[in-house]
Amino acid sequence: MGKPNAPVAGIFRSEIERQLLEIQDAFSAFVDDAERQKQDAEGRLREAEQQKKDAEDRLRTIERQKQDVEAQLREAAWQLRKLQKTLPVRIVRFFRRLNPSRSARKRLR
User: Fold this and answer.
1) For 28-37, 46-55, 74-83, 93-102, which range has the lowest pLDDT when averaged over its residues?
2) What is the structure's pLDDT at 101?
3) Which stretches of 15-55 are assigned E, i.e. beta strand?
4) What is residue 3's predicted lDDT score, i.e. its pLDDT?
5) How far apart are CA 92 and CA 109, in angstroms?
6) What is the dihedral of CA 34, 36, 40, 43, to 10 degrees?
7) What is the DSSP letter of 81?
8) Contact at 8 Å (CB) between 107 and 101?
9) Is 83 within 8 Å of 89 (Cβ atoms)?
10) With bands split at pLDDT 50, 70 and 90, how would you rate the model's confidence at 108?
11) Rounded-to-integer distance, Cα 97 and Cα 86, Å
12) How many CA atoms within 13 Å lie on the side-chain side of 85?
């Protein structure tokens, strides 16, 4: 009785082995795909972090430039106030106020 079942058992065994190999192949492909997706996501994350760092660096540079321009503007305003207090400028303002025709022309414009 053991002999007639032997070929069936061998066929069954080889079918199980074949199915196991298919499952292993499918699992291996799934793991490879998941690993590739993970690496792609990590690459995109690194790229996004680099872009963020670059944007922050540009922002800091722009902020420093803004502060420099503000300092230059304060210096220019200070120099203008200082210049407006000089004697020649005061004299020019005084004579402008004395010239009524010049004042009239300014109002007509």
Assistant:
1) 93-102
2) 72
3) none
4) 57
5) 21
6) 120
7) H
8) no
9) yes
10) low
11) 17
12) 6
Give residue for tokens 């502060």: 67
Residue 1 tokens read as: 């009785």
User: Tokens in use for 84?
Assistant: 């407006």
Note the Cα 42 to chain centre separation in Å.
Answer: 17
The size of the chain, in residues, is 109
Type of residue at 80: L
Q: What CA–CA distance (Å, rounded) separates 43 from 40?
A: 5
At 108, list the tokens.
């007509």
**Is residue 33 scored above 50 in pLDDT?**
yes
Long-range contacts, 31-36 (Cβ 8 Å, 24+): none
Residue 1: predicted pLDDT: 47
Separation CA 11–CA 104 (nearest Å): 117
Token code pair at residue 96: 């402008």
Give tens-digit pLDDT for 48-91: 999 999 999 999 999 999 999 999 999 999 999 888 888 888 88
78/80 Cα distance (integer angstroms) = 5
